[in-house]
Specification:
Six copies of one chain form a homohexamer. Chain A is α/β, with parallel strands linked by helices and 254 residues long. Helix content of chain A is 41%, strand content 15%. In chain A, helix 1 packs across helix 8, helix 2 crosses helix 9 and helix 4 crosses helix 8. The longest helix of chain A has 18 residues.
Amino acid sequence: MRILMINPNTSEGITQRLANAARATMSADTVLETATASYGVPYISTRTEAIIGGMAALEILAERHMEFDAAIIAAFGDPGLGAARELFDIPVVGLAETGMLTACMLGGKFAVVTFAAALGPWYNECVAWHGLEARCAGVHMLNGSFSSIDDVQEEKSEQLIKLCNSVVADGGADTIVLAGAPLAGLAELVRDRVSVPLVDCAQAAIGQAETLARLRPASASAGSFRRPAAKPSKGLSTALAARIAHKTTLPHSS
Amino acid sequence: MRILMINPNTSEGITQRLANAARATMSADTVLETATASYGVPYISTRTEAIIGGMAALEILAERHMEFDAAIIAAFGDPGLGAARELFDIPVVGLAETGMLTACMLGGKFAVVTFAAALGPWYNECVAWHGLEARCAGVHMLNGSFSSIDDVQEEKSEQLIKLCNSVVADGGADTIVLAGAPLAGLAELVRDRVSVPLVDCAQAAIGQAETLARLRPASASAGSFRRPAAKPSKGLSTALAARIAHKTTLPHSS
Amino acid sequence: MRILMINPNTSEGITQRLANAARATMSADTVLETATASYGVPYISTRTEAIIGGMAALEILAERHMEFDAAIIAAFGDPGLGAARELFDIPVVGLAETGMLTACMLGGKFAVVTFAAALGPWYNECVAWHGLEARCAGVHMLNGSFSSIDDVQEEKSEQLIKLCNSVVADGGADTIVLAGAPLAGLAELVRDRVSVPLVDCAQAAIGQAETLARLRPASASAGSFRRPAAKPSKGLSTALAARIAHKTTLPHSS
Amino acid sequence: MRILMINPNTSEGITQRLANAARATMSADTVLETATASYGVPYISTRTEAIIGGMAALEILAERHMEFDAAIIAAFGDPGLGAARELFDIPVVGLAETGMLTACMLGGKFAVVTFAAALGPWYNECVAWHGLEARCAGVHMLNGSFSSIDDVQEEKSEQLIKLCNSVVADGGADTIVLAGAPLAGLAELVRDRVSVPLVDCAQAAIGQAETLARLRPASASAGSFRRPAAKPSKGLSTALAARIAHKTTLPHSS
Amino acid sequence: MRILMINPNTSEGITQRLANAARATMSADTVLETATASYGVPYISTRTEAIIGGMAALEILAERHMEFDAAIIAAFGDPGLGAARELFDIPVVGLAETGMLTACMLGGKFAVVTFAAALGPWYNECVAWHGLEARCAGVHMLNGSFSSIDDVQEEKSEQLIKLCNSVVADGGADTIVLAGAPLAGLAELVRDRVSVPLVDCAQAAIGQAETLARLRPASASAGSFRRPAAKPSKGLSTALAARIAHKTTLPHSS
Amino acid sequence: MRILMINPNTSEGITQRLANAARATMSADTVLETATASYGVPYISTRTEAIIGGMAALEILAERHMEFDAAIIAAFGDPGLGAARELFDIPVVGLAETGMLTACMLGGKFAVVTFAAALGPWYNECVAWHGLEARCAGVHMLNGSFSSIDDVQEEKSEQLIKLCNSVVADGGADTIVLAGAPLAGLAELVRDRVSVPLVDCAQAAIGQAETLARLRPASASAGSFRRPAAKPSKGLSTALAARIAHKTTLPHSS
């Protein structure tokens, strides 16, 4: 099985972290490839940046979807996920979605815990978009700045453990989703120091992508995620314009 | 008062329709200018196209926001609205938002009625994003294709009147929002043939933009729509990158 | 355009404050007249008083609605609003409704902030009646008594600023609706001292009344706000009984 | 135990029907007295009439509450119920409330079935006010006019049976609340002809009033139904003004 | 009228407390009998124990339902209530259900207050199952252990009073449901020391069982609580298997 | 990895169907074992039967959980799932839960489609228990009886395809969960004849059990699914009583 993990941010270091975490738990026969956005911001934390990252993710998928059995949009907040799901035939999942849905099977309510206050508004919109507010015990953020997005996991791990435990003690959370691509791989390092199960989003994502690919779901020809009819456009990337127009392009050739 | 109406679609004809409808009801001292997206699709009907249109709207705002007291993102579905609201200091409203909120003052529940089935999924997500599901009596679409987006209003007006009345007869709707930029100006032509009040989104939008501009709201320095901190980026339009980085660019000069 | 602002309380001083605030932002061609309830309480703060004030507002509207293009029920809590909307042909809006819906266009969630604990229960019911709970970050009240309802704004302004900022700091509110007719005009005086945009309900109301009047919505002949069929009554004011019975009375002559 | 049943409509015939139905199931030691509104409309079917009826109910309670252990506001829609509950010390219940809550103990979802389309909007608002939308499978009304409110029960009973059964067949309802004071006493006559349990609101109301009176609940000195502080008023009935002002009046002497 | 009160726990002492509280307020002509589970745990506090207690309650009902006009499942959390309601013809109510619905008639929102933290998760699920989350101001539990379930009421009464008052002071609760069979009878002892009305669940339950029995509701032949079709089984108690198979067994003879 | 699939019904034939479907998509290194309830009914379709089946599932888990990395309660409706999750240390998932959560990643709203009307009430409660009502486009059932539970899949497959397509055509569903253990394996046979993706619950369950086992979540020591404190009981199976009492029993030896 071949899975594409797309980092809609521009940080190659984060792409590596995500892939490492996913590879630690994926099936023996899964081949994981990665792609990193060529434009945008180092890490998505706002609604504006989610639009930019969503655009980048769609362009990457337009170029490469034909080579894979499933794809992961590997930023919490799932930029472009709904668009990708309507536009392409392979299963596409998001980091937030798979983290939250996996957490749902380990308890009643999950809390989302992340490393920076700036991420709150967009993460909250993401929970709502997924219709999971009834299962969510809040999005909780550390305050304060950090030195480097690549190393924020190490810098903040002690504070994150503390925040996780205080969120649980305040009531309402049965599990915790460690949110944000920079935190990939952290859950297994700190699992014994937090009072409820932790979900690593990269590991949840690879497991879910595998599960969906094995189900071999047929494409929708009806419903709200059926592929839209062909449409002309102007000014878009060659591959994306072709996909929207229902024209064929060769993979990697655009 | 100066207001910018942004059409995030590429159809100049629709831009003109929108402006005409708005000018028919705006205040004597309001100056309305328009802008049309330079890339994307003729009319937005999918999640994918909403990301593209949202990007286009943000780029236009980045270039021109300083010249205006308020702005309107003039496509139903409000592409890029949340992003625009967090990124810029002037009030920015959307066609869907203003149509629906205005309808709220004319009855309990509003129905959204539009001209093509393809618009349903994205319009439904828009209602949910605005937190207005408790006030919405459904999104209702005509089936069937149309000849030209520029003239769909004339082509479909009889069918739309019929659909409006049947939606009301089936129960639940106290008002109807005629949705989709191509329908701008229709409400006043058919108002006497529908059994509940109709809302013209372009006219609602200009009224709301004027009201907000007159309130002169202070910018948020807190809350989920405070302006995000400065951030580097790569590969974005000059004006948008500058706005994200908290740098100044001259209007129209990017 | 002619707009009637009805104060369903008996305080003439509050009527004056409301009109002053509205006149500061209304359109050049708008004529604003006011009316004050001849019976009831100085300011409405309970469910009981809302029934009394609603009755008073309906009687005033029954006498004067024919002279105006739109009307405002100028008490937060909107006593009698639903009744007025079903009974009369002109657009009628409420102070709470217009304040909250206007706030919706300046951010995601609004908090309601007011000057006395006694107002909480009724204001909360008002938010729910409007179906806006999904957008509301709570009704927040000052504790403690006040000297005079006419001057409570000046007496409490410092405490209100503090409460607004603490409500925002505690999280969840993107804007604040300054609630209660006695606070009309306060927003613009303190706008620079609160961390999110403030909405002045009297100014929101006049803007919304103008917008609705310009849309010239047709009367509903269907839906839950269609005018009820004629009915006999006994013991009601002449004008109200006539309106309920679908009989004509001359304006001002009852 | 002494219970007061208040008909906020002006129809004495309906008052009698209500009392007869209640007396058929009340406890041996309960004394039931009735009161009928001296002004207003023959039967409440609109938001406007609910304000009028609520005012009438409050005035009756102000005069007579001291003589009783509990009171019933005997119109579906419960006009003035919230106000009565905050203003008086004895338990006060409504016909709609007790019908719906009793139905909750006989199944999952209840449908509300009534005799005229005009009643729909106000009944729906009543369901929402009680926070029971999650338990309600809709408000269903007969179409068509009727000859006399006093005899509408007999005139429409066959149509009501048919509507009840079709509502259940269409799915979602486990019980049916026969709504509207004119239908008091009907449930037991037709119980064998409807496929789910029927609730007679007058009988539910007397049972609930008895249960509450036996619990002897203390008055609230906190919470949103605590008695409001004393307040001056003008132009109100003597007894109501006295109650609002925390002054004593002799029962029946106003 | 004959009513069966079933304690699905194994504590005879609690059964006695429940019966004493109910007898203090029941009607003169009501005969109350009790039954205590022969297997399971001394008091139900978890989801696991609720399944065990639900099974025990169903077995008792299968043996004895024919002797009674109504039955009460007398553990907060209402184990087996939905099953009992679909399987038997007499009205069956639960302690939680009747406590909460009765509280609904004394104010807007009720809080649930109980004596041990272990009860929280199951009680919260019970509130949700009843569709009463919109009326519930939270489930609040004492921390700390207790000496004996039979005497926990006396041991904890002072702490419970304190918790009730602090829950009200923190806002949102208009009434309090004292939850858990071991607290039966406490409400009337402490009613003057809590700032909002208290509901005794055993007393609410007996009142509701009487009210339902007097309504003599017909059995449902449709809806989601119609009696299921006959079905074979293996390994169940004689009476329960017979009831599921639509076979007759003699009361008390299994 | 070792996974236990528990059929809480007594039909061995269904157990075999479930295992076959799961084995078709599980990972190469997964070992799947099965267990079938020794008492209860051939297939669970009511609330009563869900309690019985939940009891049976808990007893099986109490005996065998120590041998496995994860377990599946393999009946749609997930009898005993919440109890199992709080009582045992390994991940336990349900057929309904995993079918619905997997469907969430293939579209916005899923419909549940099953083979008999009797299943509706319990399945609807299951959707609500999981907090997934916001994602569910209804539970849809075939009418009519069937010959044998073991062969109902073959008997009804044409009718089920038709129902699936009509549910989608009526709007609202993006995916379909084929619900009920007897339908295991059907999805891949009919996938090309239904207009939206189908989810096979047995295949979703095995994928989710594998994903959770690979995450190796720590046990909760806090939150609503922490293991309850030790408690005495009487009359329960040896293994279940031991687990509740925090005592050790040897696997398979009870």
